[in-house]
Amino acid sequence: MAQQYIGTGRIDGTTTSVAVTSVSAQSTTFQAQTYKVRVVSNTACHIITNTTTTVTATSSHAFLPANSPEYITVTPGNRIATIKAAT
């Protein structure tokens, strides 16, 4: 199994915002050299990454607590989708 260095890497200043609401919303497509992203939300939510044109997050996807940055390994061409977690 390949070793992963969680939390390391260069932050180049490129940001993308996705509104976190009770309806799933998705980001734009990750660029050609994007292999790791840092995600953080000011509200608890569920997230998923996928390469399909329409990515839909549901409450069964990975939980991201509020104000807790997470590093995710992605593939160029992926998108990330999010939906607000139930209270």
Helix and strand layout, with pairings?
Elements: E1 25-26, E2 36-39, E3 45-50, E4 62-64, E5 70-73, E6 79-84
Antiparallel strand pairs: 1-6, 2-5, 3-4, 3-6
What does this structure look like?
- The mean pLDDT is 84.
- The protein contains no helices and six strands.
- With 87 residues, the protein is mainly β.
- The chain has strands at residues 25-26, 36-39, 45-50, 62-64, 70-73, 79-84.
- It has a four-stranded antiparallel β-sheet, with no helix packed on it. It has a two-stranded antiparallel sheet with strand order 2-5.
Instruction: Specify the biggest β-sheet.
Output: 4 strands, antiparallel
What integer is the average pLDDT? 84
Helix content: under 10%
Q: How would you write the strand order of the largest sheet?
A: 1-6-3-4
Shape: globular
Question: Could you tell me how far the N terminus lies from the C terminus, measured between alpha carbons in angstroms?
Answer: 37 Å
Instruction: Report strand %.
Output: 25-35%
Radius of gyration of CA atoms, rounded to a whole number? 13 Å
Task: Please give the number of β-strands.
Answer: 6
- Structure classification: mainly beta
The number of distinct helices, counting runs of at least 4 residues, comes to 0
Q: Identify low-pLDDT runs.
A: none
> Can you write the helix and strand succession as a string?
EEEEEE
